[in-house]
Structure formats: structure tokens, C-alpha cells
Amino acid sequence: MRFEGTQTYVATQDLKLAVNAALTLQRPLLIKGEPGTGKTMLAEEVAAALGMPLMQWHIKSTTKAQQGLYEYDAVSRLRDSQLADIDGGERVKDIHNYIVRGVLWQAFASDVPVVLLIDEIDKADIEFPNDLLREIDRMEFYVYETRELIRAKHRPLVVITSNNEKELPDAFLRRCFFHYIRFPDKETMQAIVDVHYPAIKKELLAAALAAFFQMRDVPGLKKKPSTSELLDWLKLLLAEDIPPEALHSKDTKAVVPPLHGALLKNEQDVHLFERLVFMAKNNR
Fold this sequence. Notes:
By secondary structure, the chain is of the alpha/beta class. The protein has helices at 13-25, 39-50, 65-69, 74-82, 90-93, 103-109, 128-131, 133-138, 170-174, 186-196, 202-216, 227-239, 267-282, and strands at residues 29-33, 54-58, 70-72, 99-101, 115-119, 140-143, 148-151, 157-162, 177-181.
């Protein structure tokens, strides 16, 4: 199996090589990059392209590694034991009834190879990646309550995403194939837009891309607009039928674009950009 991209996802040659390297090495693929650069979507597109089911584990700050394996529902068992007179306590006797399988267990138990997405791993506690080292490396884990060793029927393609909010342990990194999704240049960005809005007018797209990249180049910007935010902005421009000339002025390229709330997401950045536009107009 090789990943060659899809009609709905523009993958650079380096990114396709990274996916195929992870497949060849049977190692997790660790993807880093700015938010909104398509890291999560990559797993979805790889699964679709290779005809593999997709399983997703979206990590939160409170997520523990054990939850990906299984959880023992002791509370439900205690409650059922108190109501044992109803069915003679048959359900309580079988502890398997109180073992809740996590996403990793489901991936291991699948009859076919799957793509397993562990999304935004850097949101969890610093020990979270280390707690998964053995399971992801050996593709097995032990269920102490039932005294079972669970082995993967097939090794899943594990795609792990990170927004670089915190550093990951070296031991974990050593077990991964790493790829950083660089922010798209103008040519790649145009190809991405063409996939989503093939009928967009060239004049509007050229003006929108110029305004977008100009905004990203503003020094001191707290949050640079992302690819996904550009696509949202273009959708609004098309819906409101905004003309290309509204995105720039004749005497200066700097202008506060309409519907900029899709791109600038805090008041500091809005004020900063407005101030720079004002200065540019006064200095022309």
C-alpha cells in the first residue's frame, strides 16, 4: 500500500513520502505543524485513499493513556451487585461485562488494518506519551482484571498529531517517523483553494491570497491566520459576493479586508493590523 494523495487533499511530495515511510517502517507517524494546516484531515484522507477504517482518539488535558486501552467500570459493578436479586447476580459474576474497551483495544481487535488517529497528543500530561510506549511499540497490553494479554491482530497505521504546545519525550520520538507540515507557499495554497472552490474567479483569488499572506507577514501578530481560516474567509467572500477591489486599494496595498473576523481572532491583532494600514495610508 502506498499513499499518493487524494482529489480532496493536496499533499506535498514530502508529506506523501512521510506517510509511506511510516507504512514501510510500521512506525507511528508524528505530524506537527501550525493549527489549521490539515494534520487531522491527513489521517482521514490516508484512511480513505488506502481503503482502511479510521479510528480517532481526540486527546484532552484530562485524558489518560489507560483510557485508550480500557477502563474498568467498578461503579456499575457495585450498583449491579446491590441489585443482584433481580437476575441472580449472573451479570456481576462476569467481570468482562464491566470492561470498557478503549480506542487502542478496538484498533488492536479489528479484523482488518485500520488507521488510528491520536489527535493533539501534546494537550495531555507530559507522562501521557511515555505511558503508551510499550503498547504502541509491542502492539500488546495486559488486562489485569481479566488476566488477558491483548495482542493486535494487525498493526494499525498510527497517525499522531501535535501543535507543539509542549515537547514530547525523546523515547517516544525515537519510535516515530516525524514530519513537519510547513505552511503552504502561494502556489500550494492556490492548489488547495482550487480543490475546495474550483469555480472561484481568478481576480478574487489573487486579491484574497495577496491580502491573506500580507496579513500573515504582519510583525507582532499574536495568531497568524491558518489555511482552514482562509478557506472559511473565501466561503464568506463568495457568499456575500465581495468584489476583488474591496480587498485592496489603488494607492496602497494595505487595507482592512471585509469579514476579517474569519482571519483575525483577537482584538490585539485587529488593532495592530488596523494601525499598520492607517500608517501605510498616511505615508503613501
